[in-house]
Structure formats: C-alpha cells, structure tokens
C-alpha cells in the first residue's frame, strides 16, 4: 500500500556547494541543513600573513568540521571540473563567493542547475564588489539575490530578492558580516521550499537598471575632499577594511623628507564642528577626543582613526601629539 501521509519528510536534494571566504560559510551551513550535501568545492590554500604560511579557505575549514568531503581544484578547465562533480551526482549546485567563473558544462550538469547567493538587489551591482559599491554610492538599502546562474556575470533569472537597510555609518566590513548571515538565512528558507517555488524572474522584469560593481583597487581609496560631506563619509566607510581610505599629507607637515605621508583613515561620520567661512576642502580644523575634523566640499567630516606608514591605527589626537597639524593645513594636496 502506498504511503500518502503528507506529513512524511521531504527527500533532501543531492547537492554540491561551491564557495571560499568567510562570507560563504553561513550559506554552506544552510545547504548542509536542507540538502544531502555530497561535496564542497573551494579554492586552493593560499599563503597568508607575515610568515606566508598556507592558509585554507574558511569554507574548507567549515566543511571539514561538518565531515563533508572537500576538493580544491587549482584550475577550472573545460570539462575537468564537471567530471570531478559528476561522481557526486548533484541535483543542485549552490554557489556563494566561489571566486571563479563556471563554464556551461558545470552550469548545466545538475537537474536544477546552479543557484547563486549574490550580495545585492539585482540587477543593481552585478560583479565583484557589490557590497562595497553599495556603501560607496550611499545606497539606503541592499540585500541578497537567490539567482539561477547562466553564462553571464550575475545576469541569470532571480528566484528571490531580500532587502535590508544600510546603516548611515555602517562600513563595508560590517555589512559583509551582516549580509553573510542574512544570505545564509534567506538561502535556507529558499532551500527548505525548493523545488516547489515560483519560477525565477528574468532580471529585465525586476525594478532598477543593471549597474556594474567593479573590483576595487588601492588607488581608488584616495579621498577627494572637494566632494560633499556625505560623499566623503560614504567613501571612508565603503573602503573599510580594504583598500582603506587614504589621503596625502605634504612632506613638511608630515616631517618626511621629500615624500608625502600617506594617512589611512577609518571610522567617523558627520562632524558637529562648523565649517568656517573661506575654509578649503581638505583643511584640518583640529582634533579632539571625537577625532580629526576636516573640511569637505560642503561641510565637516569627523575621522575616528588614522594610520601612518609602519604604525598602528590610533586616535587622531594621539597622532597629532607627535605629528602636529599646522594651522590651516590641507590634506590631499601633496604628490605621493
């Protein structure tokens, strides 16, 4: 006699998870909870720290703690990765921040395709740095998208969007941690219902226009003090923790011979100091227990910590005790 009891547990889908950094660990746990997780694919161990010792990706460490087999292919060549995955016989592959482009042979291998957890409200911020770009642009909200992957860069149809506000002084690093957990929760809810979910929507049907989230580079960290107070604040928090916002201090003020001093800047927000009439962008008005107060294009920015080359992060008051700012000194004018 056939058992038609609707309360019987749903069979878990056979799954492979692909991911590498800390951001992907909550997603790994969601797949482990809701699927029959057969295999985890992560990037190879990389040299890290001063000793340049090999360090495993966070996903590898977490997967081994769960007792799930892990493979770390050095190259994703056509046909080889798909062959590696076939033995696991996945019905679904879940990808979160794996860090490599997948070929059509992998995307089409599982019955239900490959599902990606992307840290933005697609189609806005497709690409490598969606979290940082959202903060840098002063977006009021962001979120995660559960997307069926296609051959393009974050262009596939979307199963679900889940939004969350961005704090006015929230850094990219803090938002990374929050979205990692948030993304794991959203993925878990999705997998608990899958495959009994509505079909994914083409991104052309979603609100907003496609915007590319280009990868950051160190040069982009330089602060442009001529922009608005809000823009400077967003820049400092968006570049935290990497590459970190920075500004130049001229050799005379920085007490370095012939070379500008590069100061890294973190933390802070809108200053309660008034902008004097005739003050210039980048002008340091002073330091106090709250930080360093610097003129922007239309207001004053408070910087919570500074870091000189070869030194630790410190309060601006402590830095200025040894490297005092001259009256009327402006940042960002020297040639590095």
Side by side, the strands of the main sheet go 5-2-1-6-7-9-10
The percentage helix is 10-25%
Round the mean pLDDT to the nearest integer and report it.
94
Number of strands: 16
Tell me the major beta sheet: 7 strands, mixed
What is the annotated CATH architecture of the largest domain?
A: 3-Layer(aba) Sandwich
Beta percentage is 15-25%
Please indicate the count of domains: 2
Poorly predicted ranges (pLDDT <50, ≥5 residues)? none
Number of helices, counting only DSSP H or I runs of 4 residues or more:
9
Instruction: Say which CATH homologous superfamily of the largest domain is assigned.
Output: Formyl transferase, N-terminal domain
| CA-CA gap between termini | 81 Å
CATH topology of the largest domain: Rossmann fold
Shape: elongated
Structural class: alpha/beta
Care to describe what's here?
Helix 1 (25-34) links the parallel strand 1 (14-19) and strand 2 (36-41). This protein is elongated. The chain starts with 13 loop residues before the first strand and ends in a 14-residue tail after the last helix. Helix content is 24%, strand content 25%. Helix 1 (25-34) runs parallel beside helix 2 (58-66). The chain is of the alpha/beta class and 336 residues long. The chain has a seven-stranded mixed β-sheet. A five-stranded antiparallel β-sheet has the order 12-13-16-15-14. The longest helix is centred in the middle third of the chain and has 22 residues, at 172-193. The chain has two domains: 14-213, Rossmann fold (3-Layer(aba) Sandwich), CATH 3.40.50.170; 219-322, Roll (Methionyl-tRNA Fmet Formyltransferase, Chain A, domain 2), CATH 3.10.25.10.
């Amino acid at each position: 006699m056939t058992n038609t009891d609707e309360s019987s547990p749903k069979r878990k889908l056979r799954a492979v998870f692909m991911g590498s950094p800390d951001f992907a660990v909550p997603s790994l746990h969601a797949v482990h909870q809701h699927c029959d997780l057969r295999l985890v694919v992560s990037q190879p161990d990389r040299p890290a720290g001063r000793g340049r010792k090999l360090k495993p990706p966070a996903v590898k460490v977490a997967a081994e703690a769960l007792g799930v087999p892990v493979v770390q292919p050095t190259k994703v060549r056509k046909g080889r990765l798909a062959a590696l995955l076939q033995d696991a016989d996945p019905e679904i592959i879940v990808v979160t921040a794996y860090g490599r482009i997948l070929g059509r042979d992998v995307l089409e291998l599982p019955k239900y395709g490959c599902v990606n957890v992307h840290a933005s409200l697609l189609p806005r911020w497709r690409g490598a740095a969606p979290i940082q770009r959202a903060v840098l642009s002063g977006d009021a909200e962001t979120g995660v998208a559960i997307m069926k992957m296609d051959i393009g860069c974050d262009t596939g149809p979307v199963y679900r969007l889940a939004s969350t506000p961005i704090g006015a002084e929230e850094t990219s690093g803090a938002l990374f941690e929050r979205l990692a957990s948030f993304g794991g929760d959203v993925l878990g809810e999705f997998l608990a219902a899958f495959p009994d979910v509505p079909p994914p929507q083409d991104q052309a049907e979603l609100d907003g226009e496609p915007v590319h989230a280009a990868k950051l580079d160190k040069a982009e960290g330089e602060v442009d003090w001529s922009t608005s107070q809000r823009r400077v604040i967003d820049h400092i928090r968006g570049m935290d923790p990497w590459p970190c916002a920075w500004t130049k201090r001229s050799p005379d003020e920085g007490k370095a011979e012939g070379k500008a001093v590069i100061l890294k800047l973190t933390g802070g927000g809108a200053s309660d100091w008034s902008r004097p009439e005739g003050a210039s962008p980048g002008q340091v008005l002073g330091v106090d227990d709250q930080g360093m107060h610097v003129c922007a294009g239309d207001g004053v920015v408070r910087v919570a910590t500074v870091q000189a080359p070869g030194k630790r992060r410190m309060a601006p008051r402590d830095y200025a005790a040894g490297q005092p700012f001259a009256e009327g000194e402006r940042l960002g004018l020297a040639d590095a």
